[in-house]
Amino acid sequence: MNQYHTIIFDLGGVLIDWNPRYVFDKVFEDTREVDYFLENVCHGAWNAEQDRGRSFADAIAIQQKAFPQYKEQIPLYYERWPEMIGGEISGTVELLTKLYHSRQYRLYALTNWSDETFPYAWENFDFLRLFEGILVSGKEKLIKPDPAIYQLLIKRYDIDPGSSIFIDDSLKNVKAAKNELLEAIHYQNPNQLIQSLQKRGIVV
């Protein structure tokens, strides 16, 4: 018999296409400046603090002080945030939908996402309602790969790690999940995910 009863999805990069370049490729004419801006000004570690619960107002003020030459562009990271959403990743959403209709699995989401911007996703992606529960890092003030957020997920939804699979496009988040005794798959694309699930006895 299939030993897995719970499947936990990351959202950004797995079910939802998100990329700040969708905005800043239009803001800056030179791609090198886009690279500089996203690597040094509004970079991943900076954005991660919003995923951890810091307000965008505070985050913007900090970077405007550090990079006054980009005073006008920095707020666009929040003001034009919806434009960073490229849409759903259809192959993975189709997979999620099949898993839901099979009625064989408990489905949850664990996402690093700002509590300020997550409502946009909730309002615009109906498939999010297929999950029994969604743990949003910005609301909980914890982010992957902190072990505490996995333990919070497990406790809140009474999840048995030994019968659960976690899916994420970040290798460090996958490794952290494994440390919490969750089976984990490093997501690369929908077909690869389907094959990885099939190897674990989940037919979709």
Number of strands: 7
- What count of domains describes the coordinates? 2
State the helicity in percent bands.
40-55%
Order of helices and strands: EEHHHHHEHEHEHHEHEH
Strand content: 5-15%
Radius of gyration: 18 Å
- From the coordinates shown, what is the CATH architecture of the largest domain? 3-Layer(aba) Sandwich
Summarize model confidence as the mean pLDDT: 96
Largest sheet: 5 strands, parallel
What best-fitting shape do the alpha-carbon axes yield?
Answer: elongated
CATH topology heading of the largest domain: Rossmann fold
Stretches where pLDDT falls below 50 for ≥5 residues? Answer: none
Strand order of the largest sheet: 5-4-1-6-7
Structure report:
By secondary structure, the chain is α/β, with parallel strands linked by helices. It has two domains: 125 residues, HAD superfamily/HAD-like (Rossmann fold); 67 residues. It has eleven helices and seven strands. Strands 5-4-1-6-7 form a five-stranded parallel β-sheet, with helices on both faces. Strands 2-3 form a two-stranded antiparallel ribbon. Helix 6 packs parallel to helix 11. The chain is elongated and about 55 Å long.
